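RETRY 2/3 - previous attempt timed out on the joint model. Re-submitting the same 1002-residue input unchanged.
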Amino acid sequence: MNTHFDERLDGGQPGRDQSEVLADLQQALPGMTLLHREEDLRPFECDGLSAYRALPMLVALPETLEQVETLLKRCRALGVPVVTRGAGTGLSGGAMPLSHGVLLVLSRFNRILEIDPEARTARVQPGVRNLAISEAASPYGLYYAPDPSSQIACSIGGNVAENAGGVHCLKYGLTVHNVIKVEVLTIEGEHMTLGSDALDAPGFDLLALFTGSEGMLGVVTEITVKLLPKPETAKVLMASFDDIEKAGNAVGAIIAAGIIPGGLEMMDNLAIRAAEDFIGAGYPVEAEAILLCELDGVEADVDDDCQTVRRVLEKAGATDIQQARDEAERALFWAGRKNAFPAVGRMSPDYYCMDGTIPRRELARVLKGIGDLGEAYGLRVANVFHAGDGNMHPLILFDANQPGEFERAEELGGRILELCVEVGGTITGEHGVGREKIHQMCVQFSPGELTTFRAAKRAFDPDELLNPGKNIPTPARCSEFRLTKSAGDAPAPTRAPESQG
Amino acid sequence: MNTHFDERLDGGQPGRDQSEVLADLQQALPGMTLLHREEDLRPFECDGLSAYRALPMLVALPETLEQVETLLKRCRALGVPVVTRGAGTGLSGGAMPLSHGVLLVLSRFNRILEIDPEARTARVQPGVRNLAISEAASPYGLYYAPDPSSQIACSIGGNVAENAGGVHCLKYGLTVHNVIKVEVLTIEGEHMTLGSDALDAPGFDLLALFTGSEGMLGVVTEITVKLLPKPETAKVLMASFDDIEKAGNAVGAIIAAGIIPGGLEMMDNLAIRAAEDFIGAGYPVEAEAILLCELDGVEADVDDDCQTVRRVLEKAGATDIQQARDEAERALFWAGRKNAFPAVGRMSPDYYCMDGTIPRRELARVLKGIGDLGEAYGLRVANVFHAGDGNMHPLILFDANQPGEFERAEELGGRILELCVEVGGTITGEHGVGREKIHQMCVQFSPGELTTFRAAKRAFDPDELLNPGKNIPTPARCSEFRLTKSAGDAPAPTRAPESQG
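RETRY 2/3 succeeded.
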């Protein structure tokens, strides 16, 4: 449990006893599963970012919409905060429980309600796994495009909450670009439909506002997503570089050539060696950097694009370019990339994964900056990331058992995110702010901008009971952060952060 | 002037004299052009929907950001409403002035600040014309995709305010999908940056919330848009049908075949005859409906798609399919479509253009429903619209000089929009709500949903001074609408509506 983090700064403050809330909810919801014993609560103490933990006061596992509605109304009446959780694979602590709050788990809402092949949409409950949508759509030749690394396990409701990304988001967009309608319940238990089955909905775009709002505005109870036709073919090129900045510049050059690859990923030497050692993907271990560029679409088009990309890569200084000869080799090339995080994890007792996003033109400069910062802090940093999106995932290697090393890693991570902001980028690309980056929000945004965020939050949740302490910092939290930062003692989790997505 | 429309129901109520506000603003902003004489105000009395008119109290034509900031602060202090206007080509009365408000005209903010071919973005001021962006990007082989019919004249700031669409939005998205960052000023004169140059921005998606907010949340002062590479080639097919429902079903079948055309437009017999009579586009005047299907991309791909679409059209019962033989014929096919509104206008003293959007699968049913409703009301309705998007533009023909005919037209229009809502659609696709459809918002949304919209509005604009009476109805307005509707006397503009976009 993260004792340095003072929950009193976040609203939704402690006030009710567990026994009191339990009795109230048991009476109002006699049929609903409510967990309250410590051993039952333990599995829910963190999401995928296990460094940030707390036992929830209670865990609620509703099965019907009416139960969710009643639960929200009761929590509102009692002034008890509610944290909503999907599959718990998030990487920013967005679904971390509150010790004085109810954890609302939507895993029982796991039905695919409708696949409409003509409209190319799927209507699903929030607990449905991301990959299950594509599986259900597959008989119609369709799939759901956004593909977080955790897609086998993560839930679509969590994807909406975090505006999740993935390898294919460069071409096919983030979650927000692939959701057309959601049903939600407000903290008042009021039902709303945001978006529509039609092209556009009148009024403000509350659907986009909800997507990525990290459970702070309401509870998503049903989701309609777009489905896309499966590409006829996909081919992958692997280019080696003797200089990481050249690889960074090649990324911009590919896009500038008018090509949007299905995926465009970069790995630096440390990541290449780690992945090769772990997977044996056939990566060039002497290269300073590789780019993996996947092109998908109809056969003729893809062949054309492969030629164009090859020329761009050569001109950008690639020392070697290989095209996967068949599906097996293509899968192998990707296996190296997809297992790069655990592969790097094997090289070091601990690692810390960042998620900054920058304009593509700044890739070379920021990669160099990260290298310089790593040297200055005496820590190794592996880079493996969605280069086409400018979505960096620097992995800082450290050993939490070495005194002071975790603090150095955390400070280095903060410096890297600040570098991203400096060049016009942002502190998160696809993992969300959650609890992890709540302080960096005070850096990213002005006090006036944060006030507007909070006003938007209060428009939906006047008492700030939905997931307080995540995503949008309170003024009190930013003040405390600035004080401790100027005193050279930023608040830190007591355990080392880790991350595997 | 629209006398039936009681502005007292909308907030931002009358209170200050023109002379008082003028004196205050002249003192605070000695260098800024302020128009106040009736003859100077007259050109600003309406936007593209000329049925809704009012003289503004004052027109402000600032040239600098500082002037806009000061103006907003002064209006806030005085409690004077502000309506922001771009080029004034909107079709829903969104920029209609208020007699007790300042009209803030951004036409002098007309500079293209930066074209970045590598990032494929353009950074522009809000008064820049839509087409001027594509012209400036053209030397780099790039263009800005959303293309309202008014693109030669409409401003990008207005496009953002209305979330404008166009023929190519089926494939390339609405304005919201093509804007990555905006700079805004709040009514408090506070500066905010929404979105970023990077893939994603943390916190709530206020950029999407602002897009389409019709000037109710703040003033957009700078816009960064995505640019796309110009397609290598574009080809257009024209398919004839002897039955409008078959044409409607063909639309869904094309999309279901895995093809997203660059444009997919439908015209019914009345529209075909009108356009052919006006333009001589070579349209089949005996057909009950035609589809125009444009395919764009690389040559080989487009040829493949043309073959696929041909097969789908034949199977859907097309009686004839022609492919434009060259660029000249392609331009001619489109000229008929693009001039269909004025062409229909030649057939009737007046017409009223609707903008409902429906799920594609409901096209055939809704087209039949519109036909039945037209017969029941004894009025002709021409259909010419973005079929691929499900974005209908029924044009109701009438003669305002015939007693009662306008009222019948307006009632028919309302019935058509209600039909769109019934089948899961919405009351607007690309023209916005503005003043025109403010009452239909009371039909589209529940009181709880409207309360949430208004709470979001107040988060940005607590005194509701920004464009009151547009887009989001007040509870008072919906109550009045329900009362007058149940009394069989919906509030109506005194002049006949017309529309040319």
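The domain at 112-229 of chain A is CATH 3.30.465.10 (Uridine Diphospho-n-acetylenolpyruvylglucosamine Reductase; domain 3). Closing ticket.
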